[in-house]
């Protein structure tokens, strides 16, 4: 029979109480992987990173070689500027990165913009780089994967790959232009696409106009 020499039961450490109290007050930050490929539409990826930073979401960024080339061609951002927007940056060749494992917990992944090459690799499970591998992990762990596909017109091969990846559980999200808001320029169209994209993760950017029915003039 067990007995205690001290008549009073041991008291829990106050540090544990403080830690538990903080845990109740501060839920863990959301964690999202953002991958950018060489498809046109670099500003969509940049604005997504900016929005997630504003929403205090932890981001893990992967840039392909052609994503770096495209963003320099399409925008005034440097590669260093874009890398600085993320909490963590991983080399596309680093297959030992934390995000390459299902044991590393994330809330999902966004490929923005997503080229047809990357779509094809993810669709058939060809994990030849970290973007495809991280997406494969997100799918197998039944987490949210959103592919912001950029191509037009679409071939039968593109459509078949989109159908297969949708059946596997991913969301295909072509960034469609919205006219009912009467946007003043491309910036507002980008904000609308990014806002709708992050809606899929339960995140509200507050940076675009939502449909509230016909306007009354």
TrEMBL record:
Extract one GO cellular component term from the record.
mitochondrion
Instruction: Give binding positions for FMN.
Output: 38-40, 64, 115-118, 150
Superkingdom of the organism of origin:
Eukaryota
What spans are recorded as compositionally biased (Polar residues)? 1-17
Q: Where is this region: Disordered?
A: 1-25
- Which SUPFAM superfamilies does this one have? Homo-oligomeric flavin-containing Cys decarboxylases, HFCD (SSF52507)
What functional role does this protein have? Flavin prenyltransferase that catalyzes the synthesis of the prenylated FMN cofactor (prenyl-FMN) for the ferulic acid decarboxylase FDC1. The prenyltransferase is metal-independent and links a dimethylallyl moiety from dimethylallyl monophosphate (DMAP) to the flavin N5 and C6 atoms of FMN.
Q: How does it assemble?
A: Oligomer.
The entry's protein name is Flavin prenyltransferase PAD1, mitochondrial
Q: Which organism is it from?
A: Aspergillus steynii IBT 23096
């Amino acid at each position: 029979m067990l007995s205690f020499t001290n008549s009073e039961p041991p008291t829990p450490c106050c540090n544990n109480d403080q830690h538990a109290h903080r845990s109740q007050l501060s839920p863990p930050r959301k964690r999202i992987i953002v991958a950018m490929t060489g498809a046109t539409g670099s500003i969509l990826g940049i604005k997504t990173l900016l929005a997630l930073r504003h929403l205090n979401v932890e981001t893990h960024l992967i840039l392909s070689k052609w994503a770096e080339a495209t963003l320099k061609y399409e925008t005034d951002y440097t590669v260093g500027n874009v890398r600085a927007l993320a909490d963590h940056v991983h080399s596309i060749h680093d297959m030992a990165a934390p995000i390459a494992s299902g044991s590393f917990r994330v809330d999902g992944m966004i490929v923005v913009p997503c080229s047809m090459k990357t779509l094809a690799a993810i669709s058939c499970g060809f994990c030849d780089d970290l973007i495809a591998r991280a997406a494969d992990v997100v799918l197998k762990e039944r987490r949210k994967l959103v592919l912001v596909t950029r191509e037009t017109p679409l071939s039968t091969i593109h459509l078949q790959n989109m159908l297969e990846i949708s059946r596997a559980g991913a969301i295909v999200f072509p960034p469609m232009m919205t006219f009912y808001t009467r946007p003043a320029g491309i910036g507002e169209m980008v904000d609308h696409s990014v806002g709708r994209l992050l809606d899929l993760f339960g995140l509200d950017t507050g940076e675009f106009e939502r449909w509230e029915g016909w306007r009354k003039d």
